[in-house]
Amino acid sequence: MTEFPKKEIIEDGENGTIEDVMVSRVGEYTGSTVDGKPVEQVIDAESLQKLADRLNEQGTEVLADVDHAAARPGLDRDTSAAGWFHRFVVDPLKGLFARLRLTKRGRELVENREYRFLSPSFLMGEDGRPVDLASVSLTNTPAMYDI
Predict the structure, then answer these.
(1) Taking the CB of the first residue and of the last residue of the chain, which one, N or C, has fewer CB atoms within 10 A?
(2) Please, how many CA atoms are within 13 Å of residue 20, restricted to the half-sphere of its CB?
(3) Residue 17: beta bridge partners?
């Protein structure tokens, strides 16, 4: 098991602020598909650990967007970054954590309190467990209010 991250804020000059933040809690939630249909999600430590291991192994950075704009269908969707998540860690009792590097825009949105919450956008397996993390959004209407 990877060590649980301590809350850390790093000023990185022009590259933005890096913070260790919670991405998802362990639990059962009702999320929604891109077209708004409800979907039951089973977020357990085992599936989160598999996901974190794969993302870390690949060195993948995951997009932080605004209000799930990158998940909308069509070519006019907004895929600009409010930040990037990397270095994923799982606490089996709490959930998935990651290091977030905010862009200038993302930092302003958070500092001005225009957005206060995070909402993960998982790709789910047939059993309702996450198999991939498409993005994590800054939002004011998350399905998981406790992150």
Answers:
(1) N
(2) 14
(3) 11
Question: Which residues have a Cβ under 8 Å from the Cβ of 90 and sit 6 or more positions away?
Answer: 1, 2, 45, 48, 49, 52, 96, 97
pLDDT digits (tens, 9 = 90+) for 80-126: 899 999 999 999 999 999 999 999 999 999 999 999 999 999 998 98
CA dist., res. 16 & res. 133, Å (int): 23
DSSP one-letter code for 112 = T
* Residues 30/41, Cβ–Cβ less than 8 Å: yes
Do 17 and 11 meet the contact criterion of CB atoms below 8 Å apart? yes
Please report, for residues 34, 43, 53, the alpha-carbon distance to residue 46 in angstroms, rounded to integers and kept in the order given. 25, 9, 11
pTM: predicted TM-score of the whole model, two decimal places: 0.82
Alpha-carbon gap, residue 33 to 92, rounded angstroms:
26
Tell me which DSSP letter residue 146 carries: T
